[in-house]
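note to self: dont lose this again. the chain is below, predicted strucutre after it. 351 aa total, dont forget to put it in the shared folder this time
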Amino acid sequence: MFYDFSKKPALFLAPMADVTNPAFRHVAHLCGADFTYTEMIHSDGFNHGDPYAKNRGFSIDGIPYGIQIVGNDSESIAKAAAGLEKFFAPAAKVIDINMGCPSPPITKTGCGAALMAQDFGSENHPANIVRRVCEVAELPVTAKIRIYKDDEKTIRLAKSLEDAGASAITIHGRTRGQMYSGNADWKIIAAVKKELSIPVILNGDIVDEKSLQTATELTNCDGYMIGRAAIGNPNIFRRLKSYLKTGAPEIISLPDEFETRAADLNHYFSGLKQYDLLPHVNVRAHAQWFTKGLPYSREMRLKINELHKEIKIRHLSDDELAAERESLIFEISNVFEEYAEKCRREYHEEM
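---
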């Protein structure tokens, strides 16, 4: 097994395109995430020599992690799985197949959640993809799916994945049509958990201590995967780990929260620089994500948006882009320090 699920409940960082690069995964792990996954790596791209995987799929300091593959063909996915596990050995511990991404650019090519529309028995049905990957991969194989409107159909799919050899499954509690709107249906995930003998990981709407407690009580899942709530806020794993240990939400002042977020961002920036990731990451957007929920967040986003606004990214080489973004992150760090000091000052004046 790729993870010791006896250590329940496990907290996982969801694979997210343009988010879970090696530096962000590293910070999330240091904040308390038990296991993390790469951004989606397209099987066809990897098989044809696209450098995307090399730039995004490695692990900092050899921390164990999972490789997530997206594709629309069982043979292409299997070939990529066999290559990726060797490419990223020994830190890579599991091959996860994306069968739940609802993004139209993904589904219109037959990938992600579009795989769940395949007929049972077809070559590219999720169960047959898992079975084919298990035949060629040495690492455990898992799948990330969504739910159907029909609960029994969801349970049937989950059982078929287990029968095909999946070591665990992750279920996002929304249908493909819901995208990320409405509420995740944890009850159907609880029903799937009762039917399977392999670990089940819940995904969708884990945003704080209360939601984690409710999800654990309702579903008794083996793991809980956090996606959007961790974007710009890896500190959520610290808070949840503290809650699991003490049973009480952590009380933190606004200045302390601000300083923690700024420190996590600077740590993230350091990883981007050290591991040559700057050319591949939109640091302006990522920095703006780190302002969410903070005092003066709108002011900060506006100020960050104005920094180096005149630079034409498409005209720069990778080396020039890295140098430009290194200068940009220095100024962004100054913005965070400026407003952190403002928060400290105004907070103590109110006290």
